[in-house]
Write a structure and sequence with these properties.
The chain is mainly alpha-helical. It has 15 helices and no strands.
Length: 402
């Protein structure tokens, strides 16, 4: 076997290798494209670039459906068999899903520049790749005989909804695109990240924190996904003034779990602390949503604009993603399960991206200051994920250490 064939064999030997690799690439491509757009629209470096669709819609698609799902599918295809003592996902199944999704992401960028027809081809590639990935997960789920399949059930159902929402972009209709954007946050990403957090953070903590008692209440798995769904409906119905009715219980649940899971004690073990810090943003984000909604009810003003959204998407989703991807990458490559100083520094620096985006949405700033903060946040994102990718992506085509 020649070197290239051997590298390909290693690279495609596990689902997390291929999916995490392209997720890392997308973490850079997505933000590079977004920075190029912002530099024209807000930076004044050149005239705004004309894309085939709205840049806001393109940014939403890339982040919700073109970035996070690579890590989601890579993680779930790795953990489903372990959660339920099930069969491993077949190589041909995860590889075909990966090839379709990654090819779709390339076609998406080309479609943004050149043609709506190319863009629609990209959407169809995504739909097919997503569907095949979901089918592969469902095969594991349905064949497994494990008595506890709750977390797998939640993530499977949610990814099924995700496939339907993704079809909204294919329609090119404003209403369906709006549903896909809002639903992507509240019906897909939040339930998936919460279910994974609920399953894994107490488990990892028990292995690292002395005298740790696992607290994993089942009721929150009903409260959070269902209330997130209601929030999404309220938002689509322009009833943001009433989302506090569900945001506040979600915030309280998240803050309770942050304390019960012992955030402070986790900080002495950086690879665990990364997960706990990421999860802490969940409670903070929902607290911001609650305050904004209640203030809107009283005054008719959105005081925080998109600050809660970025606390949720960057603070919670992206931080947990970086933390979990680091852990899986190290653990499944035979390396020491420890975040070194560089990894810990990358993660801590990444928290400033969330802070910059929150500050940029606060009232009282002029357009120039907001623009500078947008660009600064994007640059820090690229610096952090660029360094993370440089450190970790090469592991995916290297042999497991013994």
């Amino acid at each position: 076997m020649n070197n290239l064939a051997k590298i390909w064999q290693i690279f495609t030997s596990a689902p997390h290798r291929v999916f995490f690799f392209w997720g890392g690439v997308q973490s850079l491509l997505t933000l590079t494209w977004w920075m190029a757009d912002l530099a024209g629209r807000y930076g004044g470096f050149y005239a705004p670039i004309s894309w085939t669709i709205s840049p806001i819609d393109a940014h939403a698609f890339l982040m919700i459906y073109g970035f996070f799902p690579f890590f989601i599918f890579g993680f779930l295809m790795t953990t489903f068999p372990r959660w339920m003592n099930g069969q491993e996902v077949e190589r041909k199944a995860y590889l075909l899903s990966f090839l379709l999704l990654s090819t779709g992401s390339i076609w998406f960028y080309l479609g943004l520049i050149f043609s709506l027809i190319i863009l629609k081809i990209a959407y169809l590639l995504f739909l097919t790749g997503w569907g095949l990935g979901l089918y592969a997960l469902l095969r594991v789920y349905l064949r497994a005989k494990h008595p506890d399949k709750l977390h797998a059930a939640i993530t499977s159902v949610v990814l099924g909804f995700g496939w339907l929402l993704l079809a909204g972009f294919v329609s090119n209709q404003a209403t369906f695109i709006a549903i896909a954007k809002v639903g992507g946050i509240w019906l897909i990403l939040l339930p998936v990240f919460f279910a994974v957090s609920h399953r894994m953070i107490p488990f990892f903590s028990a292995n690292a924190i002395p005298n740790y008692k696992i607290i994993r209440p089942t009721w929150v798995l009903a409260v959070v996904p269902s209330f997130a769904f209601i929030h999404g409906i309220f938002e689509l119905a322009a009833l943001q003034a009433w989302t506090w009715l569900v945001d506040l219980p979600m915030a309280a649940s998240a803050i309770y779990l942050t304390r019960a899971w012992r955030l402070r004690d986790s900080l002495s073990v950086p690879i665990l602390g990364m997960l706990h810090i990421g999860f802490a943003w969940f409670g903070l984000a929902l607290a911001l949503y609650s305050m904004q909604s209640f203030f809107l009810l009283l005054t008719g003003q959105l005081i925080f604009a998109k600050a809660p959204l970025h606390a949720l998407v960057i603070g919670y989703f992206s931080s947990i993603l970086m933390a979990m991807a680091t852990r899986v990458t190290l653990g499944h490559s035979g390396r020491i399960l420890k975040a070194d100083r560089l990894t810990w520094a990358i993660f801590l620096a990444f928290q400033s991206v969330t802070i910059l985006r929150i500050v940029s949405e606060l009232p009282g700033l002029d357009l120039s200051a907001r623009s500078d903060l947008y660009l600064c946040a994007g640059l820090v994102w690229l610096a952090c994920f660029g360094t993370w990718s440089y450190k970790y992506l090469a592991i995916y085509w290297q042999d497991v250490k013994t």
